[in-house]
Amino acid sequence: MNREQRLDAVHAAICRLAQHPAPHELADGLSPAMAAACLGYACGMIGRDALDQATRVPGRPPRLAAVVAARGVFTAPLEWVALLAAADAAVILKAPAASPAFGQAVATAFAEQGLRVRCTTDHALPPVDALVAMGSDETIAALTARHTRARLSMHGHRFSLAVVRGSGPALARALASDALLYDGRGCFTPAAVLHLGDPEDAHKLVRTLAEALDVVAQTLPPGPRDPLLGPEWRRRTGLAKALGAPGNDRPPSATLLDVEHFEAAVLPGYLPVHPVEDPESLHRLLAPWRPWLAGCATDLDLEEHTMLLDVGFERLCLPGALQRPPLPRTHGGREMLRPLMRQPSVER
Fold it and tell me: Pairing relation of β-strands 130-134 and 151-155?
């Protein structure tokens, strides 16, 4: 295939996947409504024009690339497979052994369009020219050590936040969507909301956020809750009660806590709001977490974005867009395909 034919084929595969009759069968425990919404968002971000722009990266594409997916956000490997296939690489999609259905559906949709994509659950990958991997820091370290000759794009543990000044219902609804999509899985789920505005606005935001979480949960209901989260849920909500903070006994819930109680960990269905005095306080709070910061949903003005980038966030977006990353974009601070392309020096 030439470039135009590949772009058409990848786009056709994405459209076919978006029409899957039972997305919940691919989604590793998400409810039918949640699975359908998440698959629709993920496929909708990968348009043909977006693929065309994102694959205009200098260098030679890998002949054979592997994409190692982790459990959590079931659609996460899709954009990588699409980019690599559009760039003319053969792709091995290593799906999680405990939830291979989405990987198998992706491989089938792409192969039906004549694209060289296959799925495996075998941990023993063959030698590849390029490797994209998602997972725990331990998994990333092991894969890096094993594939020393491959060009790498490795993505270990990260977390995201919201940094806002507002308090209105539109903002609350957007934050609720960010928090509840994918049942709170993945690095783009906000662990907390850091409020830089008037303290009274932070109180107001918690009230509107609690209402918004209930509304969004009605249209995007969660799947079965992992019982292992029960003790953590009771610990966090118990702390809020002990401090006299508002909140529900069951998910979804929002609460207002002093910033000293900030935790850099997502609890699905739970979104705390922490008032932060000023940008300097924000810097001090997040400095220890800089290597693990991913996205930031924010309503701050454009002139304040430099401050957020200085804190260490690599992706800034509007509230409501955290779980819907666009294509093209940077990932880890670089164009997505760039580290996977071979750029030899040809001298005469």
Answer: parallel
Mind listing the pLDDT tens digit for each residue in 25-55? 999 999 999 999 999 999 999 999 999 999 9
35 with 23: CB under 8 angstroms?
yes
Per DSSP (E only), the strands in 32-138 are: 64-68, 90-94, 117-120, 130-134
The predicted pLDDT at position 345 comes to: 75
Q: Which CATH number covers residue 183?
A: 3.40.309.10
- Paired with 134 in beta bridges are 155
Residue 240: C-alpha distances to residues 86, 162, 246, 257 (Å): 49, 20, 7, 7
Residues with Cβ within 8 Å of 164's Cβ and at least 6 positions away in sequence, in order, are: 171, 175, 193, 194, 195, 196, 197, 205, 297, 298, 299, 300, 319
* Mean residue pLDDT across the chain: 94
Structural domain of 78:
3-157
What is the count of structural domains for the chain?
A: 2
Going by pLDDT thresholds of 50, 70 and 90, the confidence category of residue 137 is very high
pLDDT of 344 higher than 90: no
Q: Does the pTM of the predicted model rise above 0.90? A: yes
Q: Which amino acid is at 252?
A: P
Residues 225/234, Cβ–Cβ less than 8 Å: no
Both 32 and 55 in a single domain?
A: yes
Indicate if 235 and 153 belong to the same structural domain. Answer: no
Taking only the tens place, the pLDDT of each residue in 265-299 is 999 999 999 999 999 999 999 999 999 999 999 99
| DSSP-derived secondary structure letter, 278 | S
Tokens encoding 251: 């998910």
Asked whether residue 59 falls in the same domain as residue 31, the answer is yes
Q: What is the DSSP secondary-structure string of 116-181?
A: -EEEE--S-PPP-SEEEEES-HHHHHHHHHH-TTSEEEEE-S-EEEEEE---SHHHHHHHHHHHHG
Spell out the alpha helix ranges (H) of 220-329.
230-242, 279-286, 305-311
- Same domain (yes/no): 61, 197: no
Same domain, 107 and 244: no
246 and 180 together in one domain: yes
